[in-house]
Amino acid sequence: MVRLVESMTGDHPARPVLVASNDPSATGLARAAAMGVPVAAVDHRPFKSDRAAFEGALLNHIDAVAPDILCLAGFMRVLTPAFVARFEGRMLNIHPSLLPKYPGLHTHQRALDAGDTEAGCTVHQVTAVLDDGPILGQARVPVLADDTAETLATRVLAMEHRLYPAVLRRFAAGDLSPVRLP
Predict the structure, then answer these.
(1) Is the predicted pLDDT of residue 54 greater than 90, yes or no?
(2) DSSP codes joined into one string, 8-41
(3) Could you confirm whether domain 2-174 is CATH 3.40.50.170?
(4) Which of 31, 86, 114, 119 is packed most tightly, with the most Cβ within 10 A?
């Protein structure tokens, strides 16, 4: 999120209008506020299993700023098909694997367990199917012989910080061609 906000300056075709989280203690909220971006937190826990009610509360904040694009970054809640449909073609997410490989959680350990020689990250459009939307960019990193899930995650995260801003810039300009980083 910080890298996205930092990137949206100068001739960038997008500007940040809100950083929202489902965790009121998320450090990203304070960082965004310090960067001058409005913030909102809607704690999902009081809503228990009522995802639609949680999303309704979240939408109150989103609708107030009327964003053209929604960028998910570290938002670890599965969104309902109705929420996703509302922003169809305008919502992006970053995932720490080379999709379609390893949707969901524990991606780095899964890559190691499979004996993969490379890993990476993917920016994709969000659809109602988890981690399955059209791919807008990928970045690759080698899997090293002594890698752990943690060391691999650190290298992938560095590439996420390069890839997501590049994809957002292109997407906001109307260019859907994929970004590929080595």
Answers:
(1) yes
(2) SSTT-S-----EEES-TT-HHHHHHHHTT--EEE
(3) yes
(4) 119
Ranges of H-type helices in the chain = 2-7, 27-34, 51-65, 81-86, 107-113, 149-172
**Paired tokens of 15:** 């500007």
Catalytic residues: 95
Instruction: Name the DSSP letter for residue 179.
Output: E
Cβ neighbors of 111 (< 8 A, separation 6 or more) are 97, 101, 102, 119, 143, 152
Burial class (CB in 10 A: 0-12, 13-18, 19+), 17: middle
Q: What is the pLDDT of residue 74?
A: 87
pLDDT in tens, 150-170: 999 999 999 999 999 999 999
- The Cα 33–Cα 180 span in angstroms is 31
